[in-house]
Design a protein that fits this description.
The chain has 156 residues and is mainly α. The chain has one domain: Up-down Bundle (Butyryl-CoA Dehydrogenase, subunit A, domain 3). It has 7 helices and no strands. Helix 2 crosses helix 3 and helix 3 packs across helix 6. The chain starts with a helix and ends with a helix.
Length: 156
């Protein structure tokens, strides 16, 4: 893999990576940090890319893992300051969905962000999250069901 391919991916898809990473990490700034760190790691470890699957899926996995690491570090830091649990949410929340999405299990949140924020196909989500394509479908279905349940409870 060449540095030029990584650079082209960075330039073409930066905003998608940043939006998803920000949603996972908890804020836009951490999302940008996760993308920067993720691409730096990809560049540093580019020799480990075996070419089994798309380059973009390999980089997504690195960026998502970096965003999760930053989110965990942020939660640990905030947990020492406050006694309340810290909810992870998206950078923008025009519809008040942040608490409901934050309450989803991590795997469901990640699948939602990769599908709807990054607009990735199930095959790439499966590669990024290291699961089968059918599991991606089931994970998204479970997330949708949980969100529908949350909506219906509020409407009552």
């Amino acid at each position: 893999m060449t540095v030029a391919r990584l650079e082209a991916l960075y330039r073409e898809r930066y905003e998608h990576f940043a939006r998803v990473a920000g949603a996972i990490a908890g804020d836009a700034e951490s999302g940008h940090d996760a993308v920067q760190l993720g691409f730096a790691n990809a560049l540093r470890h580019r020799a480990s890319f075996r070419g089994q699957g798309p380059l973009e899926a390999w980089v997504w996995r690195i960026v998502v893992n970096e965003a999760k690491r930053l989110a965990a570090a942020s939660r640990r830091e905030l947990a020492t300051v406050a006694d309340e649990p810290v909810l992870n949410g998206s950078a923008t929340d025009e519809h008040g969905l942040r608490p409901w999405i934050a309450a989803l299990p991590e795997r469901q949140r990640a699948a939602l962000f990769l599908r709807y924020y990054a607009d990735l196909p199930y095959t790439q989500i499966a590669a990024i999250l290291d699961m089968e394509v059918g599991t991606v479908s089931a994970t998204l279905s479970a997330a949708h069901a949980r969100l529908r349940q949350s909506f219906s409870e509020v409407e009552r």
